[in-house]
Amino acid sequence: MQLNNDEIRRYSRHLILPEVGLAGQKKIKAASVLCIGAGGLGSPIAMYLAAAGIGKLGIVDFDTVDFSNLQRQILHPDADVGRPKAQTAKETIPGINPHCEVVIHNTRISAENALDLIRPYDIVVDGTDNFPTRYLTNDACVLLKKPNVYGSIFRFEGQASVFAPHLGGPCYRCLYPEPPPPGMVPSCAEGGVLGVLPGIIGCIQATEILKLAIGKGTSLVGRLLLFNALDLKFRELKLRRDPQCPICGDQPTIKELIDYEMFCGIVPEAKPMANPDEVTVQDMKQALDNPALGIKVVDVREADEYEIAQVAGVPLLPLSQINERFTELDPNQQYYLHCKGGVRSLKALAFLREQGFKYLKSVKGGISAWSEEIDAKVPRY
Length: 381
Description:
Helix 5 links the parallel strand 2 (56-60) and strand 3 (101-105). This protein has 16 helices and 12 strands. The strands form 2 sheets. Strands 3-2-1-4-5-6-7-8 form an 8-stranded mixed β-sheet, sandwiched between helices. Strands 9-12-11-10 form a 4-stranded parallel β-sheet. The chain is an alpha/beta fold. The chain folds into 2 domains: 31-263, Rossmann fold (3-Layer(aba) Sandwich); 278-373, Oxidized Rhodanese, domain 1 (3-Layer(aba) Sandwich), CATH 3.40.250.
């Protein structure tokens, strides 16, 4: 694997590093990396790997660019809202480095295709944001003996590691043997994320990939790096392989990929069933337009969200305060509870029901559905 004159000029700041040099840069050029996800983490990972001279970069993503992505997913320009992320990545990356071969996989990674997608690549980097895909990526990498460069972000915090049992370290299951119950951990859409955070964690992941490619330095194998942006502090935890791990332990029981949606307790959406505890935003509008119905509407989002967007005449009682303030409500009154999308309002409903409230409904789709179906003047966020 040779470097031409243009590449020598391009990578000169690498070449003069004794730890990299010409031999190391050739290794980087010879390396192939599969990036699962082209969003917040995938953006800085892909861009910096391309700039560094990775020879082949695979991008797996089936999603399209949304306006809410632009605050952190720097791989995608404003003009590409609505377009497939994999395609915009393929168009953006050559502008950073035309020597990087970009292969896009505009598909959802699954138990059916994961092994075929991962097998041709040397290193896998996890830029996903959901538990089924994290467990799937982990298991496929363990079975194929590929290093899995992991990262995750939420609000102001992030973490990173390298899972590689074949290199003597643990896997993702050693750290998290079981997924959290569905809905227990809010998504970035529910909890938010500081825009620069994926840049920081993604750059750490890209750093680990380059170190693996050139075989230099001390990797994050066996270590979990924790970052808090508010305090600007890093912490480190030592990780060890679990001898009882079902995928990388001494007597593994998982020898092929499984149904990860079921493993994580996620009910398929193919046949959604009506929830008797839910009403529509049309029902909510009828209740607000007709006080004689005797139904009151309560917003259970947080105060900063209420400031962004609100429905006129609907008071705020944040879910985070409801265990202290529920006595402000009348247990004999009928209430419609709403949040952003309908998840937290169901949690509020369950709590209030435990306190003896009987006449409760959650508004399906929350204020997002209200903006889409009732009043477009209410901002969507």
